[in-house]
Amino acid sequence: MKKILLLVTLISTIQIGLSQNALNFDGTNDFVQTTYAGVMGNTNRTFEAWIYLSATPTGNKCIMDYGRNAIYSRNTFCVDANRRLVYLSGGNNISSNTNAVPIGTWAHVAFVLNSGTGYFYVNGVQVGTGLLPSVNTPSGYDNFKIGNRVSGGTIPFPGSIDEVRIWGVARSQTEIASNMNTEFCAAPSDLKAYYKFNQGTSGGTNTAVTSATDDAGTNNGTLTNFALTGTTSNWVTGKSIFPAAIVSSFSVTACGSFTMPNGTVITTAGTYFDTVSSSISCDSLDSYVITLSSVTVKNIVADSGCVTYTTPLGMVITTSGTYYDTISTVTSCDTVIQYDIVISGGVDDSVYRQGGRITSFDTWVNHQWVRCDSNYAPIAGETGSFIITTLPGDYAVIVTRGTCVDTSDCININPASISENALNNSFEVFPNPTSNYLAIKNLENLAITGMTIIDVSGKIVLDETNNFNNVINVEGLENGVYFLQVKTAAGIANMKFIKN
């Protein structure tokens, strides 16, 4: 089908909030181990991250940590069962106000160590402070870890984490609030480690994406114990922030759907964004304003066929159903013609004669008996599956099912043949064809002395006497054509039937 790309317009330095990726931690054993040693000694520092808690933690849950499991040597930044932010230095610990961290939404959290005093911030607002005069992080121990604490214990984080930043300075409340909703394209000099977590495909299969890029340096992180598939323990949709500038905008008119350059298939009109990756600065965005035209059904054809139906464009239909022909166009959406077709499945024009009676094998079609010797003139009132006549002549039947029409061979009836087989008119057999039982209708209530079934080779395959209920079980016979002889005191009637 046709897809048209129209109008390219350049738009400069427009910023837009866009959900990028984050990492979801399963709360059991997921963590990211980086090669960054951390800010050492008693130097001022700032930790920042966006976190998402779906439920209140059952205890301390670590957002980030590094250092040594000893007094004043840890840097455990976590959230506790009272939804407080907590900083654990191994001997001098402080916490924020109760319920400072919300549940079921993204929240920006920050810890600042400034000249022996610690400060906590949630969404850019200070929520607690405390003295930390003895913090003195030694070198040579656990590197910076995200989602769990340093060696000596385990407090894995249950939820999603995004935009992790470590600064070598004490950031002010104004600086934290001003920059928490914006990605840094180029890392400021005081930003020592920066993990945007924009790798992978949200909720996709990411088993090959096991590294978290450090956008402030070269201290990348290794994903440990993550499933990397599904909606948990994987790359997921992150916090909506300002990641980049829209550099180009495209207006697109497409037929039915449009596939973005990143592979996303768009089926609803609207504005969509595609990330243009950059290795030296922030990724930029292309904007696509997409208008979708509908595929139109020009015509609906309701018709039928005997065995097949062929559309004007050459499609051959052999089964009843709905089908479509497509008429391609270069100026708009392709045009579709719908065909609602009923295939009748053909008819059987075979007949057989029993005396003056001629019977159609196909009893489920419409019948019209005709005189072949009178230019196939219809015989008034003869529209059943059989005809009984005593008049000499050539007879046939026209059978019709849907659009299927066929005419049987002509059968000659003469007075001699009728009288020779007059006894046949005294009986009828049904159903015919049959699969299990054959019933004999005694039209003149003649005394039946026996019944014999003969196959087409003349072999007797069944012989019954004293059959008072006039029903024969033929289920054991092979499928084919047979002759039934009904014996009476007046003679023998011969009738043909089909076993299927």
Describe this protein's structure.
By secondary structure, this protein is an all-beta fold. The protein folds into 5 domains: 3-16 and 243-293, no CATH class; 18-241, Jelly Rolls; 296-342, no CATH class; 346-420, Immunoglobulin-like (Sandwich), CATH 2.60.40; 423-500, Immunoglobulin-like (Sandwich), CATH 2.60.40. Helix content is 3%, strand content 50%. It contains 2 helices and 42 strands. Strands 2, 4, 9, 10, 11, 13, 14 and 17 form an 8-stranded antiparallel β-sheet that branches. Strands 8-7-6-5-12-3-16-15 form an 8-stranded antiparallel β-sheet, with no helix packed on it. It is elongated and about 130 Å long.
How many independent structural domains? 5
Number of strands: 42
**CATH classification, class level of the largest domain:** Mainly Beta
Shape: elongated
